[in-house]
């Protein structure tokens, strides 16, 4: 740059050092945290001088303020107000245990790569003071999950009405730092945050992802890592598909053989497994710290072969079927004409509800091909009442639609054709929808014909297809007000490892997350693919696997560390 100084400024002459011609005067007072009632000590002077020298030579932030996924509601950049995080910075937080927990999470996210101590302190009115302030204030305009982020040379301030809003602001701040912030060990980097303000809040209340832990079992640590990915993109629900023909994955004290017998198998020859009560509580608590609610699914009345192997009394013929490790669907069911089935449902849902702080219980209801007509709707109506009696809100796949309405009921729509009069009718009777269109949001679909794992029954889903739909208008006759939100399900017939989970989630999960969070006015494929491109570098730095989808302009300097599965994980064919 022609205006760059030819001689290094005198580091101890902060006040008179020459400025670059393009350097605004904003840094004239870099506001070091100097106490007013005493003369600054030599180390403070040296730090202030070094900071000024650094500013004079510094390039602007490599990230623009709007480079955030999901796109924020309102972004006002101020290129004259970049902030640089320095080693002595602290995280100051409102005096509130949940807000302090968010402050601790922020510090834990920033410490590894910066190597800075980043102490977390509480204050009645936290001020940035050369660091980061997280302030709870009850600006009603931000709503239960919104936040405001202000970046000035003096520091970063995130305000929200709730700890959840603060955490969303933290995730935004994380994306505004250079990608090296994701490194697990310290790196030499100028930790600059682009100046300006963001005001942000979600379009939809429910933003989720589903992990099928029944077809293949994934241990607690894998689930916690998936929760981290959800939190990064401001999702607030993790739906766990806990039971299916191939395995029962949650311990139930009153029906112990469900886990010990029903949990022993998985698709193909893969090992089975199930979560103990303590495991499940760990998942729920880890999610709750990230303001994510777990939605447990017990799939009924179909998809129950594993339960029938454990308790043949629930089978229509009373005979235990052989364990099932294939991937066909629709053949198994608990007997809707047997009262013992309702004891089973009441006990299982009761135990799961007692361990689940969130409001929702998911009861499946899909592909029960052998339970038809009034046998099916009668069963569903009884199950809906059981859930209501437990004080929970029932969620089910949209096959529940023909059953009678019950207060608050939520249908998860996984259709591929937005003309669905049966679902639209259930909405007219009061149901709300979670949208998971099979041909846009199903993350078990292949990206392209040569994707080594995944299905294609709902078509191929590249990143653009995951992004290009509008939850507010997708199902005919369903107004946006009836849409609770969106969810991206990952079925795991062909997915066998954490790396494969990540390969299918990334980069499509952020696309669905943006549909759930961002105002429709920000929807723009060209802008999205450019914003998303910078995330490859972040995932690589964090050791996260992702698919280098060809339609995303990934930076070419990025090290390609991503693992791409080469072994097709599917060991059997899918229906
Ligand atoms: C349909 S979607 C299913 C699942 C399969 C999935 C595979 C739904 C509610 N049921 O049982 O795993 O397709 O894509």
Give a written overview of the molecule.
The relative contact order is 0.10. The model is unreliable at 1-38, 560-564 and 566-575 (pLDDT under 50). Helix 2 (97-114) packs parallel to helix 3 (163-176), helix 4 (220-232) runs parallel beside helix 6 (277-289) and helix 8 runs parallel beside helix 9 (373-389). The chain is elongated, with a radius of gyration of 26 Å. The protein has an 8-stranded parallel β-barrel, surrounded by 7 helices. A 7-stranded mixed sheet has the order 1-9-6-7-5-3-4. A two-stranded antiparallel ribbon has the order 2-8. The longest helix is centred in the first third of the chain and has 18 residues, at 97-114. The chain starts with 41 loop residues before the first helix and ends in a 33-residue tail after the last helix. The chain has helices at 42-57, 97-114, 163-176, 220-232, 257-260, 277-289, 305-310, 339-354, 373-389, 421-428, 438-441, 463-467, 498-505, 508-517, 525-542, and strands at residues 74-77, 83-84, 91-94, 120-123, 132-136, 147-152, 155-160, 192-193, 196-200, 206-212, 237-241, 243-244, 247-248, 293-300, 360-364, 393-397, 410-413, 432-435, 483-490. With 575 residues, the protein is α/β, with parallel strands linked by helices. Ligand TNX binds at residues 329, 366-367, 397, 414, 442, 444, 455, 491, 493.
């Amino acid at each position: 740059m022609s205006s760059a100084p030819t001689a290094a400024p005198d580091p101890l002459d902060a006040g008179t050092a020459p400025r670059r011609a393009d350097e605004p005067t904003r840094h004239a007072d870099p506001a070091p945290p100097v106490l007013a009632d005493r003369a600054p000590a030599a180390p403070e002077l040296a730090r202030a001088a070094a900071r000024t020298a650094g500013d004079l030579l510094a390039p602007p932030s490599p990230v623009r303020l709007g480079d955030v996924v999901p796109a924020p509601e309102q972004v006002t950049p101020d290129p004259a107000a970049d902030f640089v995080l320095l080693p002595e910075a602290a995280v100051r937080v409102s005096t509130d245990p949940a807000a302090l927990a968010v402050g601790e999470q922020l510090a834990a996210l920033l410490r590894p790569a910066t190597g800075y101590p980043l102490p977390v302190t509480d204050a009645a009115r936290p001020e940035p003071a050369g660091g980061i302030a997280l302030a709870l204030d009850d600006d009603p305009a931000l709503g239960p999950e919104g936040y405001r982020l202000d970046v000035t040379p003096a520091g970063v301030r995130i305000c929200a009405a709730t700890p959840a809003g603060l955490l969303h602001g933290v995730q935004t701040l994380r994306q505004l730092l250079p990608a090296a912030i994701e490194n697990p060990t310290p790196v030499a980097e100028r930790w600059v945050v682009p100046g300006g303000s963001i005001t942000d809040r979600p379009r939809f209340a429910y933003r989720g992802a589903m992990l099928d832990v029944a077809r293949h079992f994934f241990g607690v640590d894998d689930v916690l890592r998936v929760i981290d990915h959800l939190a990064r993109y401001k999702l607030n629900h993790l739906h766990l598909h806990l039971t299916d023909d191939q395995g029962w994955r949650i311990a139930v004290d009153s029906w112990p053989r469900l886990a010990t017998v029903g949990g022993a198998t998985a698709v193909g020859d893969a090992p089975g497994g199930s979560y103990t009560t303590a495991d499940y509580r760990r998942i729920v608590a880890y999610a709750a710290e990230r303001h994510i609610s777990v939605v447990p699914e017990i799939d009924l009345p179909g998809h129950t072969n594993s339960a029938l192997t454990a308790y043949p009394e629930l089978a229509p013929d009373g005979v235990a079927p052989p364990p099932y490790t294939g991937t066909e669907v629709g053949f198994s069911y608990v007997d809707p004409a047997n009262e013992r089935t309702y004891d089973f449902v009441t006990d299982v849902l009761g135990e799961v509800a007692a361990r689940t702080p969130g409001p929702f219980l998911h009861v499946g209801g899909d592909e029960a091909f052998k339970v038809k007509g009034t046998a099916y709707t009668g069963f569903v109506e009884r199950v809906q009442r059981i859930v209501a009696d437990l004080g929970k809100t029932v969620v089910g796949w949209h096959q529940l639609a023909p059953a009678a309405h019950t207060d608050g009921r939520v249908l998860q729509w996984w259709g591929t054709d937005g003309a669905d009069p049966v679902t639209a009718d259930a909405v007219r009777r009061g149901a709300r929808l979670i949208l998971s269109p099979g041909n846009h949001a199903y993350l078990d679909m292949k990206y392209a014909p040569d994707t080594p794992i995944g299905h294609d029954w709902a078509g191929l889903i590249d990143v653009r297809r995951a992004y290009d739909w509008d939850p507010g208008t997708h199902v005919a006759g369903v107004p946006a007000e009836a849409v609770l939100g969106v969810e991206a399900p990952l079925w795991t017939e062909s997915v066998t490892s954490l790396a494969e989970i990540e390969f299918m989630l990334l980069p499509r999960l952020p696309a669905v997350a943006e549909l759930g969070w961002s105002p429709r006015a920000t929807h723009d494929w060209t802008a999205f693919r450019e914003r998303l491109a910078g995330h490859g570098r972040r995932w690589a730095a964090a050791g996260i696997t992702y698919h280098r989808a060809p339609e995303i302009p990934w930076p070419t300097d990025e090290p390609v560390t991503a693992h791409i599965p080469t072994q097709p994980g599917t060991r059997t064919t899918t229906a």
